[in-house]
Amino acid sequence: MSDREIGKEARSVEYDRVDVSVLVIGAGAAGARAAIELTERGVDDVLVIGKRSHGDAHTTWARGGINGALGTHDPEDSPAIHAADTLNEGHFLNHPAKVETVTEQMPDRLRELDEWGMEYSRTDDGRIDQRFFGAQSFRRTAFAGDHTGESMLDALVNRARELSVPYRENVMITRLVSDGDRAYGAVGFDMDTGEYVLFNAGQIVLAAGGHAAVYNRHTSRDDENNGDGAALAHDAGASLMDMEFVQFHPTGMAVDEDDSEWSPWSGRLVTEAVRGEGGRLFNADGERFMERYSPDQMELDARDVVARAIAREVAEGRGTENGGVYLDISHRDATFIGERLPRMYERFSELGVDMAAEPVEVAPTAHYGMGGVAVDSDGETDIDDLFAIGETMAGVHGANRLGGNSLAETVAFGVVAGERIAERAAGPGDIPDELLADVVEPHFRDLTETAGRSGEHDVETVIAELRQLMWDHAGILRDESALREGLAALDDLREKAERVDVGPVASESFEFAIDLGFMLTVAEAIFRGALERTESRGAHYRTDHPETDPDWRVNVYFDAADIGGMIPRTDSIPEPSERVQAALDEGHELDYHQLE
Predict the structure, then answer these.
(1) How many domains does the chain have?
(2) What percent of the chain clears pLDDT 70, i.e. is strictly above it?
(3) Is 275 part of the annotated catalytic residue set?
(4) What is the reported pLDDT for 593?
């Protein structure tokens, strides 16, 4: 008997049902670009859902730029060199074919965004301008001042509206409907009304962002990037990959936590564009300390290198009173800073700091998860009909992400996944009766039991404890003892999570309780991956295994066990194509001093 035949009156919990050919979960750049591609290819039954208002996604917080080998200033640049830089920065844990997918697409994707009205910064002759970013051989990062993500998402949303792509806002997905081999839909709730919703979908695209907000100092808003995508996919039976690699951006805002004006900005991103435009790092003794760590590339070395250098300066007593260092671009003219870094200049001005006259305090902050859901060349997971793209997927960035590649990945794989799904989209299908009985109905009952539950712990307090635990035990510097202590403490937090006080379905505490469940899954994967990888590589630095081990040039996967838990395995990595290998052999590298 089908769900339609059963009817609402026979359900143990009331819920609405929505039938759709393709459900896109996540309304940032990746989700929007996939929906655009599907619609342009004639799939007229697409629905994009987001946890926030339309156009309000984490993409808007990406500041500095988006990579593509346009050659505006450096015509010798190419997609192959872009791929070589990406593999170098990723310490060769990236999947080369996925990297090339991104780098080959990006010149066209940048021009396409231009056609759709993206407000790029431009050269005097009207071309898309490009700037230096850390660890890049050429000026490859296109930008819109220091609000690139915001301008990019505006262009994508406007294009989606032109195509009348259906969108539903303020909906949170809590579980995917899967039998472990194939995905059939998703369940969740309307965050405004509290109504439960079942989405019956022929194909599902997870574009739900990353998981950097499992750390207490991070660049995301507190209610996003909590690991929704990775946790949903893992619960559905998909494999996770390389979760130990979390990028700590060198320059988050370092603030006085007791100052009510400054404290909300703790960890928020001070874009790499500040350094790309000539910003310099100084310790509390006035030393330009990157001369010791990277005399050739200085402040524009790889993010992991700069982040560890700052962490060491602070640890050895040369940090500021707020636990950071100074970033100084005051040698640049105020007009230049206002034009090239308008959001940064405005933000600090509102806080009483003139970047054109004085330095700002910065410290490393959790920024991006290089790991995520394992996917094939089209973005499909090992669960049929379930795709993962954007920061939710793994494979492009390896052990450390090249700055400017995150926005590039979103639009490139939005196109790739959209092309593949459009080839086989054939309507909503139907959720098997046994999944309705064994997955959907029990999950809605669980949600109902959670809502309005009286508990002894405040959910936001438990989330704060988890974030502090991650920072202390799985942060920039790691060792086996700290990781095992953290994993044991995670079990205690999991027990606390079962006893948190929760309001009704549409309440903030209910949303946070769901977030906490996702965060616990992701935190476990990070701990277990970091324990498994007994070497240091990229963003993963083990003080008890400080060297890079060639035998560990493998990806670490975690598969879901039948009775719960995570089963680790490793797999080798393919070699680059001949043209990318040639670019690697040529040894392209930025010489910072050409900026002086």
Answers:
(1) 2
(2) 95
(3) yes
(4) 47
Last residue of a domain, one of 321, 349, 365: 365
- The pLDDT of 531-538, averaged and rounded, is 97
At 183, the amino acid letter reads A
- Residue 147 known to be catalytic: no
Residue 451: count other Cβ atoms within 10 Å of its Cβ: 18
pLDDT of residue 11: 64
Residue 262 pLDDT grade (very low, low, confident, very high; cuts 50, 70, 90): confident
What is the residue range of 528's domain? Answer: 446-566
Whether 220 maps to a domain, the answer reads no
Beta strands in 297-359 (DSSP E): 325-328
- 359 and 456 co-located in one domain: no
For residue 265, the model assigns a pLDDT of 84
Do 143 and 130 form a contact (C-beta atoms < 8 A)? yes
- Cβ atoms 68, 547 nearer than 8 A: no
Q: How far is CA 15 from CA 8, 189, 213, 508, in A?
A: 8, 9, 31, 20
pLDDT at 333 over 70: yes
pLDDT for 394 beyond 80 = yes
Domain CATH number, residue 507: 1.20.58.100
Kindly report, residue by residue over 353-373, the tens digit of the pLDDT.
999 999 999 999 998 999 999
Q: Of the residues 175, 211, 275, 588, which is catalytic?
A: 275
Q: Exactly one of 33, 63, 82, 249 is catalytic; name it.
A: 249
CA angle 265, 323, 365 (to 5 degrees): 50
Q: What is the CATH number of the domain that holds 262?
A: 3.90.700.10
Q: Coil, strand, or helix at residue 189?
A: strand
pLDDT number for residue 177: 98
Domain membership flag for residue 485: yes
Q: Residue 291 falls within a domain, yes or no?
A: yes
Do residues 520 and 225 touch, judged by C-beta distance below 8 A? no
Q: Is 397 inside a domain boundary?
A: no
